[in-house]
Amino acid sequence: MIKLIEKYPIPSLVLFVIVMLGFTIDAIPVTIMEARNFISAREMLTDDNWILTTMNGEARYQKPPLPTWITAFFGMLFGIKSVLALRWPALLFLASIGIFTYLLSKKLELNKSHSLVNGFVVLSSFYVIGIIIEAPWDIYTHSFMLMALYQLYIMLKNEKTSIVQSLLFVLFIAGSVLSKGPVSLYVLFLSFVIAYAFAYKLRGTLLHFLKLISLLIFGIVLGGWWYFHVRVADPETFTAIASKETSNWSSYNVRPFYYYWSFFVQSGLWTILAFISLLYPYMKSRVSDLKAYRFSFFWTIIAVVLLSIIPEKKSRYLMPVLIPLAINIGFYIDYLIREFKNLKDKRETIPVYFQFGLIATIALLFGIIGFYIAPFSNSLVLINFIAAQVVLAIIGFLMLWHLKQKSIKVVFYLCLGLLMSLGALGLPLAKLNIQKDFKPVSELRNTSIPLYSLGDVSPEAIYDYGDKIPKLNTSEGLVLPSEKEFNLLTGKENPKDIPELSKVYRIIFIDTYDLNTAKKGTRGHRSRLVNQMYHLSRKQ
After folding, report:
1. For residue 315, what pLDDT is reported?
2. Ranges of each domain in the chain
3. What is the pTM for the complete model shown?
4. What is the CB-side half-sphere exposure of residue 402 using CA atoms within 13 A?
């Protein structure tokens, strides 16, 4: 099986993503950032707002539109209500990160097996997977940037440019800018160039570097056309949004410089291996290619330093760092595959046994733990759970067996099999085990009575409703509907406490709509997903 995987590396990387998440990722509830993207995509299709993007009928220029265009295209093909279809574009770009990590590793002159390990490591890193639903724009911008960097590496190495590589470089830079502005230029591109200069030196004629700089500028300008257009078409709104977004960099979620120092933890499954791979004095005599290792090491560290300089910090901003870190981890895994059977020093073997032994033990104990934490609400849940447990138990046993035999390559691929099994068999359990108070806002579409909102109704609720929900409270104050009766969806606000409404309308509480799949009091429960619905009718 491993030989077959290594024979067809790119299809194997794509298949890994498809099996792991391709048919089950809709079991995860829509997140707030996703909902914003999905709403804008829906309004592109229903209201033709492709350039001046909107959310719930209001201007939304916080994020550029390319990811939303792609999402809208998939919504047009497969249905805007299908969460699975709307998430597929992000999964495809996730796969592309694995593919181009593999291709870049090959260009670094690493062997095929080693390069494929790098590709799988990045695809199985915790926040690379998590980012596709937590902040969907990020997977696009960093994926496009990695594609651009692959072309740049070839041009730097060959010390010349070709028409095809130049065109692709420009288009991918433009795609990255049109996905999330200059974010990836700062984190991935700048750190890549500095790391390349440290590891390989910048060689070539002045004309060659002038060409590269010109291509970069051209790509940025091409990707920036949307910003210029919106600035001209709707200057007042654009300026207000840009000012708020810019101020956030220095005043919102401000964290100390060292906030990202535990960045390697975001690799999830590979945390221990990631930490060891960053021990340069230990690794430098054990890697297959020291220059390539220096490159991935400096690329990782410089990217973290660049992120640390910015006052605003969030865990998800570390996602691009996991790309060079995956290559770094790959060097350590490659070393273990080659030399683990010969290692005698317990200081080298114990961390490896602990890393993979822990994963295997968790797989074996999944059933025991699950029976305590999983509410088996019906037979389908129980059957799904038993199937997942059997597969995971087999994988856990095989991991321990091959770990005892010191067959690290087999153990590595069994880890990937574990992730695929969790995604394909374990993830659906989240969809099957929904708390009893769950009540979707989409049920309100069954009535002919118009619906309005008051206060902060979450983007998740608006997306679930399936259409715009006009607001009563605007920047100009409270605006009363023309209808004599209507339904009102609120967050924490009670319309009975608002004199402008209570004097004019009879207000009757109807029901609570709760989009939480997790029980109240648990970590996954979000108060913003709980909304109250009232019926208002004018007094005679």
Report:
1. 83
2. 2-339, 355-432, 441-538
3. 0.93
4. 18
